[in-house]
């Protein structure tokens, strides 16, 4: 089974709620555990909506 790293997914976000600190924008929920684990526990299937974040390339500064 492939483990999904939500922290690298564009749908993942962190909330300010201590009881539910992690969220998934795709599925629209907040959870006390990492969203991929919540999806697996509720459906029995690994999260298939993982989409990597698009991070801008670091600019090279010439001094």
> Beta fraction of the residues?
5-15%
Radius of gyration: 15 Å
Shape: globular
Q: How many individual β-strands?
A: 3
Estimate the mean pLDDT confidence: 88
**SS element count, helices:** 1
Distance between the termini: 47 Å
Tell me the strand order in the biggest sheet.
1-2-3
Keywords:
63 residues, alpha+beta
Please characterize this protein's 3D structure:
The protein is α+β, with helices and mostly antiparallel strands and 63 residues long. It has a domain at 6-43. The protein has one helix and three strands. It has a three-stranded antiparallel sheet, with no helix packed on it. Strand 1 and strand 2 form a beta hairpin. The model has no long low-confidence stretch (mean pLDDT 88).
Q: Which helices and strands appear, and what pairs or packs with what?
A:
Blueprint: E1 12-14, E2 22-24, E3 29-31, H1 35-43
Antiparallel strand pairs: 1-2, 2-3
Task: Summarize the model shown.
This protein is 14% helix and 14% strand.
């Amino acid at each position: 089974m492939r483990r999904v790293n939500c922290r690298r997914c564009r749908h993942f976000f962190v909330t300010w709620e201590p009881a539910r600190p992690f969220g998934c924008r795709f599925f629209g929920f907040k959870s006390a555990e990492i969203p991929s684990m919540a999806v697996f526990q509720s459906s029995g299937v690994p999260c298939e909506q993982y989409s990597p974040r698009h991070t801008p390339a670091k600019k090279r500064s010439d001094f």
